[in-house]
Design brief:
It is built from 8 helices and no strands. It has 147 residues and is mainly α. The protein has one domain: Globins (Globin-like). The longest helix has 19 residues. Belongs to the globin family. One of its GO terms (cellular component) is blood microparticle.
Length: 147
């Protein structure tokens, strides 16, 4: 079980309070699909993903990015039991979608970049450390079924 300090909980809550899901979610997923083009293979039903402009303009990419952030919101609301909160998602991604588990970390890194760019200096090193810890727990929970 992960132990969270009051400050870490406050930082995570603050970050989510400042997140614009409709902007950050799409930007993070767009970045992942552009920077790591092999991740596109899981989105074959999304239509045109042939270049950066197509990815950025794709409404299905944007919608899924928002969905991902709402999924992270579930983790924030259940910080003391993220593993069980994500049990079904782990099974879905491993057994049905066959997503490479390394991609969760890639998307988490892209989201961190988007948050840092959005928050600027307010995204302090201590806040980033709490955020990275949070994402590491989420990624581990999503990868659980793969072990």
């Amino acid at each position: 079980m992960v132990v969270w300090t009051d400050q870490e909980r406050a930082f995570i809550t603050e970050i989510f309070g400042k997140l614009n899901y409709e902007e950050a979610g799409p930007k993070a997923l767009q970045r992942a699909l552009i920077v790591y083009p092999w991740t596109q293979r899981y989105f074959g039903s999304f239509g045109n993903l042939y270049n950066a402009d197509a990815i950025i303009a794709n409404p299905k990419v944007a919608a899924h990015g928002i969905t991902v952030l709402h999924g992270l919101d579930r983790a924030m609301k259940n910080m003391d039991d993220i593993k069980n909160t994500y049990a079904e998602l782990s099974v879905l991604h491993s057994e049905k979608l066959h997503v490479d588990p390394d991609n969760f970390k890639l998307l988490a890194d892209c989201l961190t970049i988007v948050i840092a760019a959005t928050m600027g200096a307010a995204f302090s090193a201590d806040m980033q450390a709490a955020w990275q810890k949070f994402l590491a727990v989420v990624v581990s929970a999503l990868q659980r079924q793969y072990h």
